[in-house]
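Re: [ENG-882] Designed sequences occasionally contain unexpected residues at chain ends

Forwarding the minimal case from QA. Structure tokens:
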């Protein structure tokens, strides 16, 4: 028989660490094993593209927890351990080093991996992906002698890197395939603002083009695009998205853009849960997949509660993420794959505005905030209430957001 109440958490990133900590803080008395194939102490990834890259934060400051916390909470932290197989019938777990562990519950918190490109010359020195601490260390060391850098991909990681490198005095060029970066997430209006923001800070942004090869003698010296542009550079950062890590699996486990879980974090296999970026989870009647720090934390905490008290705490989280670029703090609440209209509150010219995304019934589905943190709470409430709203009042900066009239009409399924 397995150790009484043994829970094994696979992945010691944001979700895994918070799941382990929450289990103990919620009163879990059993054994907790926190495994990760990385050999470094669990650390926070977002600062790697911002404060840490500019040497405004040291290694100790980006650790998710002081190492002493794991011992204090009696969490068995197993680093440099790669899981190779799970037997859901015998309830055993095998690792690459030949060890085998028994379990009663498993939490899959395996996170995501970077999408990669296969380009001519991509083996030259000075070409990087940013995912792990080792990547960040290599980039920061290399940047000491870089004057020109190319960033492939204008997603949030690429945009944050562009902001960071530009503030370090490096000439930055972003190359993006689409006409408007992240338009499918934030819409044309916000996307155009992103482009203008970077251009105002001296970043060259090339859209509707793609890097196809690199030239250099041992190290990168030039990036060449499909349209024939030749961009001098001594460093290249590639940020073209991520994919969920779902290689740790069993045959009955349902996977669709991540491990599919219900409102309690349960997978399709009994006693196996999943949390964070590696999951697809129910939100407003649909199954969605997102990769946000805030989601990873809250999802992990909810899963921990449901392991202790099964199906006691449905996950009712409103998606949220943020991004810091130059002097602007961006915040995004909700989740809208499509919308019928947008409402602008404020002015993009002042770098302080909010864009609301509404459906055909004038119900707010999402909100994008630029330098307006005071709108965070009322915007989240508008999304959670799922009631039709007066759009003219919503756009009027003279009416407090919390006082914008709700209209009569049927609401959608609440979050």
């Amino acid at each position: 028989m397995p150790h009484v109440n043994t829970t094994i958490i696979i992945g010691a990133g944001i979700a895994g660490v918070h799941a382990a900590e929450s289990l103990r803080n919620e009163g879990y008395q059993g054994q907790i094993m926190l495994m990760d194939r990385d050999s470094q102490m669990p650390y926070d990834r977002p600062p790697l593209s911002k404060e840490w890259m500019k040497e405004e934060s040291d290694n100790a400051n980006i650790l998710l927890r002081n190492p002493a916390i794991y011992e204090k909470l009696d969490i068995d932290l197993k680093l440099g351990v790669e899981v190779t197989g799970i037997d859901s019938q015998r309830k055993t777990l095998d690792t690459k080093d030949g060890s085998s562990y028994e379990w009663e519950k498993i939490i899959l918190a395996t996170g995501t991996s970077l999408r990669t490109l296969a380009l001519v010359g991509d083996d030259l020195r000075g070409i990087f992906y940013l995912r792990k601490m080792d990547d960040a260390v290599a980039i920061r060391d290399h940047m000491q002698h870089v004057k020109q850098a190319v960033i492939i991909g204008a997603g949030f990681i690429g945009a944050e890197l562009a902001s960071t490198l530009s503030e370090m005095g490096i000439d930055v060029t972003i190359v993006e395939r689409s006409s408007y970066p992240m338009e499918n997430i934030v819409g044309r209006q916000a996307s155009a603002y992103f482009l203008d923001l970077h251009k105002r800070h001296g970043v060259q942004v090339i859209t509707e083009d793609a890097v196809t090869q690199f030239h250099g003698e041992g190290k990168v010296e030039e990036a060449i695009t499909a349209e024939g542009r030749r961009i001098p550079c001594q460093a290249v950062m590639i940020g073209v998205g991520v994919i969920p890590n779902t290689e740790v699996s069993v045959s009955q486990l349902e996977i669709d853009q991540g491990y599919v879980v219900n409102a309690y974090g349960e997978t399709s296999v009994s006693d196996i849960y999943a949390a964070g970026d590696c999951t697809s989870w129910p939100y407003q009647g649909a199954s969605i997949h997102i990769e946000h720090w805030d989601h990873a934390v809250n999802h992990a905490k909810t899963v921990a509660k449901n392991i202790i008290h099964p199906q006691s705490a449905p996950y009712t989280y409103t998606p949220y993420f943020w991004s810091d670029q130059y002097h602007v703090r961006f915040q995004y609440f909700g989740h809208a794959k499509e919308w019928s209209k947008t409402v602008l509150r404020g002015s993009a010219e002042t770098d302080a505005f909010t864009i609301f995304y509404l459906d055909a019934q004038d119900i707010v589905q999402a909100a994008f905030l630029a330098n307006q943190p005071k709108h965070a709470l009322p915007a989240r409430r508008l999304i959670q209430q799922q009631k039709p709203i007066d759009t003219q009042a919503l756009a009027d900066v003279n009416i407090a957001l919390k006082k914008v009239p709700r209209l009569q009409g049927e609401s959608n399924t609440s979050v």
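QA comment: On inspection the terminal residues look reasonable. The longest strand covers residues 328-334. Proposing we downgrade this to a documentation issue.
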